[in-house]
Amino acid sequence: MITQKTLTLFFFLLLSFYTFTSSATIEAEPAFENPIDRKLLGQDKERTLSHFRFYWQDIVGGPNATSIPIVQPIPKFNTSSSFGLVRVIDNALTIGPNLTSKVIGRAHGFYVSVSETELDLLMVESFVFYEGRYNGSTIDIVGRNVALNKVREIPVVGGSGVFRFAKGYAELRTLKFDAASGDTLVQYDVFVSHR
């Protein structure tokens, strides 16, 4: 006759065997984060600090517009702040302030009017360069631009090509604003640390 003790011992051994075999077949999950050799990413070199000055040509009107509204301002807030306005850009980056100056790249991205009370823009831009060793490389910025301030600062959040793992900031100064057309000329001084 099977006693209660024997039955309990049998189930305990059975459960232990099942737990042992099932845990032995479970594979370890890969780690979420793994160390990486810095040399594989080109990070074994010293970083370079560079200063770039170029001019951002924002053309909002006419047949050659490079800044196109994709969302109009919210009617309730259609004031001087243009709250809710979203523009997509493909603006020329020139070596000098004149629109006819040599184009060294393009600013691709968008900006959004994010304040109900002032001309405050959220800028998301990728500067694509066409010249020399920077050809095909990008510097990416994201940040707040209070457009009526004399000098604004926007962080460099990354880049590609020569500017892989870039960090730094851009200083913006509006040099010219045409109230009739809305066209704007902005001087960008970009200070960037890169490989």
Structure, explained:
- Residues 1-23 form the signal peptide.
- Homodimer.
- It is found in: Secreted, Extracellular space, Apoplast.
- This protein is mostly beta strands.
- The chain is built from one helix and nine strands, in the order H-E-E-E-E-E-E-E-E-E.
- It has one domain: AOC barrel-like (Beta Barrel).
- Helices cover 11% and strands 44% of the residues.
- A hairpin with an 8-residue loop joins strand 3 and strand 4.
- The N and C termini lie far apart (80 Å).
- The model has no long low-confidence stretch (mean pLDDT 85).
Short description:
The chain is mainly beta and about 200 residues long. It is built from one helix and nine strands.
Sum up the structure in keywords.
195 residues, mainly beta, AOC barrel-like, 8-stranded antiparallel β-barrel, 1 helix, 9 strands
Total count of helical runs of at least 4 residues: 1
In terms of quaternary structure, what is this?
Answer: single chain
Mean pLDDT metric: 85
What is the CATH architecture assignment? Beta Barrel
The best one-word shape is extended
Strand content: 35-45%
Strand order of the largest sheet: 1-3-4-5-6-7-8-9
Judged by helices, strands and strand pairing, the structural class is mainly beta
Domains, number: 1
Rg estimate, integer Å: 28 Å
